Amino acid sequence: MFDWIPNLPVVLIALVALVGMGLVTMAIYALVMRVAEGERAGALQALSPGMLPPMGILFALIVGFVAVGVWGNVDNAEEAVSSEASALRSAVILSDDLPPDLRGRVRADIRRQIENAVNDEWPAMEEQRATLSAVPAPLADALHVALRLDPEGVGAETQRELVTSIQDALAARRGRIFLSQEDINTVKWLGLLALAALTLVAIGLVHSGNRTTTRLAMGLFGVAVAVVVTMLAAENEPFAGQLGINPDLLEQVLHGPRFSAA
């Protein structure tokens, strides 16, 4: 739903949210004021203000439920990128103990993997079109080299650690690609916005006897909803938009002293 919004700068997301909620709030206000006329006015004005706190709490619970998922995805995505960079850096360090030809091959594979991730995988993740169907050839080649090493020549511990590092990098890559597909689904967005609209209706009905109070109360709640929508939309997709996770940690591996010496 509105997949283009997370790709906007945060300021524009906020502007879209404010304008959207402003239009919705004005429409609901006009509807409530029209309904709260004539014979119905007394009945509607008799609605208890006590109905507003439960609706506010319910809205807050829905927001919290959605926010936990969004920020949990962001945290997990950051951890996956950090784990991938650490695993690749470990593989580079462990390659010090390999013969010169194999050392150069492993480091060349790692370089190609990072370049592929930055130039190909990251744009695909930003657009949520990255998949796990293709095995990364550079890491697969590095893993084959590690598995074919002679334990007596390089040491069994070095071989085991090198294989583990490459496997960890593959697992972290799978994790970040999987998380790049995560976002708030349409049902959650509709539920959150529908509950916000119902709360606006309740605010309007409770305060319908005083139009100034109604406009003020509904306006404040509408702005609050716009802030919530902005926060959720800005980080809805972990790798998209102004706040999206970038590949800086992976690129830093290329600038290490050992890698530079490859």
Word description of this protein:
By secondary structure, this protein is mostly helical. It has one domain. It is 75% helix and 0% strand. The chain contains eleven helices and no strands. The protein has helices spanning 10-35, 40-45, 52-94, 100-126, 137-147, 151-154, 156-179, 186-206, 211-234, 248-254, 257-260. It starts with 9 loop residues before the first helix and ends with a helix. The relative contact order is 0.20. The mean pLDDT is 88.
Kindly estimate the percentage of residues that lie in beta strands according to DSSP: under 5%
Number of helices: 11
Measured between the Cα atoms of the first and last residue, the distance is: 47 Å
* Secondary structure: number of strands: 0
Helicity, as a percent range: over 70%
Total domain units = 1
Major sheet attributes: none
Coarse morphology: rod-shaped
Order of helical and strand elements: HHHHHHHHHHH
The poorly predicted ranges are none
The radius of gyration computed from the alpha-carbon positions, rounded to a whole number of angstroms, is 27 Å
Mean pLDDT rating:
88
Question: Which structural class matches the secondary elements?
Answer: mainly alpha
